[in-house]
Design a protein that fits this description.
The chain is α+β, with helices and mostly antiparallel strands. The protein has 15 helices and 24 strands. α10 runs antiparallel to α12, α11 packs across α12 and α12 crosses α13. The protein starts with a strand and ends with a helix.
Length: 478
């Protein structure tokens, strides 16, 4: 009988439960959509129902276990989207779930004047995506929820609470609140005062890899598990994916998913005086990550694929793209650049007029991939300027690295070898396995490099990058 773990992962688009062996083999994955609803009292809010999400998780756990009945479960852990939060009442019942997409506090951001102090303490800009801002919206327009709130925590830590009854918050998730002193690793009374958040709402901090507690007996019985199984603290999904690449100190990692964080693993907290990056805690003691981020890159490609060729698979699309000699057009779809103080509201394609009859849907999707690669290149340059890049390679993981085209583009644009390791698609699950192994004293495996893409030396994409940059500026000129 194999030994393994249950790994719960709540992403932006879906909830999934994986069962993996201690050697990192993904044995089964059960998924369902993450369901959100709008609230009419805010122009830009999204919520989720924690009770409904918990019911989904229990169903997925049961489904996953039925798929691999011959696995001995040693532990459970969880990871989730950053900037998400769950509010709890005095009895521990959930009052409200707020995902990373929720920006209900946007209207009141202008009242925050201590932005430099906040960046020094948190390594983050003042932005509506972070929990402190979401809570301001709750205070202003959902007073019944505000008055009944006793605790808040992240989604992944709330899952741990549901399994064990123990409430805590992990370091990398705490960094996403704007209420946490990232360098000292403690909640900040100064930040709580700035945002008007009671310190009493903030739970105990636990490190990733610590044992939160033992699975409740009634849940063990429901899932057909033996008693005494530990729940091990996981962390933020980006950091879990980075962990799954087995990076060395100083490595840069491209996490190419719904968004594309560009991450460097470092050993000290050091902010950028121009505030061009985020500084976050990593999952290991005394480690931090410096981050720039290309924004909703992968989501743009997914949506355009659904519009242009919903009947085709990604592999078939890539085969068409690889036959293109001249891209024919470029695109810009609001990708995020971390040294810009703006959010782009316009996007589109640029091609020569009159319309070239040789243009196909593959050309337009190629243009979207070029947009992703160019935005990654610019954010990579910002990160390199801030923190350097001494390695001849960067590590790539998550779904965007499945195809051939994006790694080829990136190798030439970054002038770095793109290294992709075993298990890269489910890097977050791999990271969870590694955390559990380390906690239980089980040796982790050395991940093999399964693909490596080297720069060709061509300047073709350098010229495309320049064209992209000019178009991006022009379409968003005011």
């Amino acid at each position: 009988m194999k030994q393994g773990y249950i790994l719960v992962d709540i992403g932006t688009g879906n909830a999934r439960v994986g069962i993996c062996s201690t050697s990192g083999e993904v044995l089964t994955v059960a998924t369902c959509d993450t369901r959100y609803y709008k609230e009419t009292m805010f122009p830009d809010s999204l919520s989720f129902d924690p009770d409904r999400l918990w019911a989904d998780i229990r169903q997925l756990v049961g489904q996953a276990l039925r798929g691999v009945p011959d696995v001995e479960i040693l532990a459970i852990t969880s990871g989730s989207q950053r900037q998400g939060a769950v509010l709890l009442d005095r009895k521990g019942a959930p009052l409200l779930g707020m995902p990373n997409l929720d920006i209900r506090g946007m209207e009141w951001l202008g009242e925050i004047t201590d932005t430099d102090a906040i960046y020094r303490l948190t390594g983050k800009w003042v932005h509506a995506v972070f929990t402190a801002s979401k809570l301001r919206g709750v205070k202003e327009r959902q007073r019944d929820i505000w008055d009944n709130t006793a605790n808040k925590t992240s989604i992944s830590d709330w899952i741990g609470y549901q399994f064990t009854g123990e409430l805590a918050m992990e370091l990398s998730q705490a960094c996403e609140t704007l209420l946490f002193d990232a360098q000292k690793g403690v909640w900040s009374e100064e930040l709580c005062e700035i945002f008007g958040i009671p310190v009493s709402w903030l739970p105990e901090i636990r490190k990733s890899g610590s044992t939160l507690g033992i699975i409740k007996p009634e849940l063990a019985k429901e899932f057909g598990l033996p008693g005494g199984i530990p729940f091990i603290v996981g962390g933020a999904d980006t950091q879990m994916a980075v962990k799954g690449t087995q990076p060395a100190l100083g490595d840069i990692i491209l996490v190419s998913g719904t968004t594309t964080p560009i991450i460097k693993l470092v050993d000290r907290y050091s902010i950028d005086e121009q505030a061009r990056c985020w500084i976050n805690r990593y999952l290991e003691p005394d480690r931090f990550v410096v981050e720039t981020n290309a924004g909703v890159s992968g989501l743009n490609y997914q949506r355009m694929k659904g519009i242009l060729c919903p009947d085709m698979g990604y592999k078939e699309i890539e085969e068409e793209i690889l036959r293109i000699d001249d891209p024919g057009c470029v695109a810009s779809f609001g990708s995020l650049i971390f040294d810009e103080v703006r959010v782009l509201s316009r996007g589109g394609f640029l091609f020569d007029a009159p319309v070239n009859p040789g243009l196909t849907r593959a050309h337009f999707l190629f243009a979207v991939l070029i947009d992703i690669a160019c935005s990654i290149k610019r954010n990579f340059e910002i990160l390199r300027d801030i923190s350097g890049c001494d390695t001849p390679y960067v590590l790539g993981c998550s779904g965007g690295m499945q195809g051939k085209v994006l790694p080829l583009l990136l190798a030439d644009m970054l002038q770095k070898e793109i290294v992709i390791k075993d298990g890269f698609i489910q890097a977050g699950l791999s990271g969870g396995v590694m955390i559990c192994n380390e906690t239980l004293g089980i040796a982790n495996w050395d991940k093999a490099v399964i693909r490596s893409v080297r720069p060709t030396g061509s300047d073709r994409y350098t010229k495309l990058y320049q064209k992209w940059h000019t178009f991006r500026e022009g379409i968003n000129a005011r």
